Amino acid sequence: MKKIFLFGALQCILFLSIAQNVNKVFETLKWDEQFKNSQGVWSQTSTAQNAFLQSPEGYNVWRKNESNGFFILPKNDLKFDFFEAELSFSFDKSKGKKQYAGIVLQAQEGGAGAILIELNRKKQFRIRRVSNNRISNVSDGNDGWVKSNKIKGSSAFILKVVTKDRLYDVYINGVFIYTFTEIEFTEGKIGIYIGQKSRANFTSLRVKSDDEIDVFSSKMSKSQDEILNETIVKLRETINKKDQRIALIEADLRKFKNVPKEDSSQIKEFIRLRTQDKKNKRFLRDLEAENESLTAKLKKLEVFKKEIADNESGDIIINLSNLTTAQKSKIGEQESTIRLQNESIEKLKNRNYENAKTISFLELKNMRSEDQIQKLQQELRKTDSLNSELKYQVLAIEVELEKLLKAQNIETEKPEKKSRRKKKKKEELPEFIIEE
């Protein structure tokens, strides 16, 4: 077991010694941003998607959008090719552990490209590459996220990146974490990044760089072939170191092939080492693939160099001029289309304004008509009520009239009977008259 422990310690030492590629120490402080006064340098805004505000604690950045993050670049002309950048920030604990933020390196004009290094509150880091509005993962893991036990803390971080000769070493809170290579972007801006539904407070951004010639600079005296050859040599040295490390691991694995089956702990260690060997082989294949990619880029550069040498008469300049003219023509057509669209929009706005006026007039007229209708309905109700009262009065009068008629009929019938009786008496009188 002691041998196994020593082997594991030796493996860790070899890994650390091989992994760090940039040994340059930068002395000159080129940019010291303490975010005490962000006016004119960093965006100050508050919308439904973002809230970037200066506070006494630093630059408070809140990305409210739930679908993607946001790049924030300074409003200055500072660009760097090889440097040491150190960014200090902390997350808002109340927003949860899914928040992430980081630093933007080698940012190109117009969003053509950049390198993005991110951290979250789950002790995970991620390295991504932005090129032509497409984002690809440089680090392996679930969506590029790699968990590391070397990351200490979950809210406050100091993210440092050291780069030279297109090699990048990443440190988190003073501990080395990861190394990678990027050869396309030779120079660019440095900014900050905030992830979706994340809120962070940035307190410091310090950049150091020395005044020396970058090996990838287009102004140096070395030829393109020499530059790429040096890069390939460095990558091959890295591959050879990895090969040596793998050979050591394989040698130790051969030693542990005859481990007694009774020792379960040694069997577990053997399985772990075999798994590590598979990972190393995968890493080696990735390095070989990267080497092939660099070789292909070298061939393309050689072809381009040959084209430049064969076209000293100015054919390339003519082609570029023709391309520029075509682009200007396309831009002019697009501007004309935009102008026509703007005119159509203005016409639609005017028509909409006239329609709105007509609608307002009709609504006012409709309101007046409704008022008149309500008044007429009230008068109609009054008329109906009066009519009902008149009908009631007519009925009462008819009843009284009927009573009067009945009374009058009774009175006319009584005198007729009396007259009849009188007539009868007169007719009977002659029968009782006695003559003298």
Oligomeric grouping of the chains: single chain
| Structure summary, number of beta strands | 16
Q: Helical residue percent? A: 40-55%
CATH class of the largest domain: Mainly Beta
Instruction: Output the number of helix runs.
Output: 4
Indicate the low-confidence ranges by residue numbers. Answer: 1-18, 213-221, 423-436
- Fourth CATH level, the homologous superfamily of the largest domain: Exo-inulinase, domain 1
Question: How far apart are the termini?
Answer: 190 Å
What is the string of helix and strand elements? HEEEEEEEEEEEEEEEEHHH
Look at the helices and sheets and give the structural class. Answer: alpha+beta
Specify Rg, calculated over alpha carbons.
Answer: 50 Å
Mean pLDDT: 79
Shape: elongated
CATH topology description of the largest domain = Jelly Rolls
Q: Specify the biggest β-sheet.
A: 9 strands, antiparallel
Domain module count: 3
CATH-scheme architecture of the largest domain: Sandwich
What portion of the residues fall into strands of 2 or more residues?
Answer: 15-25%
Explain what you see.
By secondary structure, the protein is an alpha+beta fold. The protein has 3 domains: 195 residues, Jelly Rolls, CATH 2.60.120; 71 residues; 91 residues. Helices cover 48% and strands 23% of the residues. It is built from 4 helices and 16 strands. A hairpin with a 2-residue loop joins strand 3 and strand 4. Helix 1 runs antiparallel to helix 2 and helix 2 runs antiparallel to helix 3. The protein is elongated and about 155 Å long. It starts with a helix and ends in an 8-residue tail after the last helix.
